[in-house]
Design a protein that fits this description.
The chain has 135 residues and is an alpha+beta fold. It has two domains: 30 residues; 91 residues, Rieske [2Fe-2S] iron-sulphur domain (Rieske Iron-sulfur Protein), CATH 2.102.10. The protein contains one helix and eleven strands; from the N terminus they run H-E-E-E-E-E-E-E-E-E-E-E. The longest helix is centred in the first third of the chain and has 25 residues. Bound molecules: FE2/S2 (inorganic) cluster (FES). The site of FE2/S2 (inorganic) cluster has 12 residues, from loops.
């Protein structure tokens, strides 16, 4: 009887780990998901020189994508895709989520093509002395 309980305990434990991992993945915390802590206002994000004109950079650990749609105009958006919460993966002449193919505009974070249901949320920034910071 003791052996039976021990066996059930081991099976329950193994299922707890495996099932927990499976549920965690389904709940939206798998690879590529945002786990960033909020960044305080005034915290420098990047140098303006690090953000290409007509492109951008992804700061995944700060849940932010910085873009420079035209020279001297900088924008910041959340890096969390509005479809299912992946971190956007690349910035070309658009902001791209490779999880399911959503594409966003550099200038305003609007959806260029889905399945994303809504734009990337814009973040307020300040640009001074060659540095970009959250406002
Ligand atoms: S999570 Fe980005 S396209 Fe699905």
């Amino acid at each position: 009887m003791t052996n039976g309980l021990g066996r059930r305990a081991v099976l329950a434990s193994a299922c707890g780990i495996a099932c927990g991992a499976a549920l965690t993945g389904c709940a939206g915390y798998g690879p590529g998901r945002v786990t960033a802590e909020p960044v305080a206002a005034g915290t420098p994000l990047a140098a303006t020189a690090d953000v290409p004109v007509g492109g951008g950079v992804i700061l995944a650990d700060q849940d932010t994508v910085l873009t420079q749609p035209v020279e001297g105009e900088f924008k910041a958006f959340t890096a969390t895709c509005t479809h299912q919460g992946c971190v956007v993966a690349t910035v070309t002449d658009t902001i791209n989520c490779t999880c399911h193919g959503s594409v966003y505009a550099l200038a305003d974070g609007s959806v260029v093509s889905g399945p994303a249901p809504s734009p990337l949320a814009e973040k307020a920034i300040t640009v001074a002395g060659g540095s970009i910071a959250l406002a």
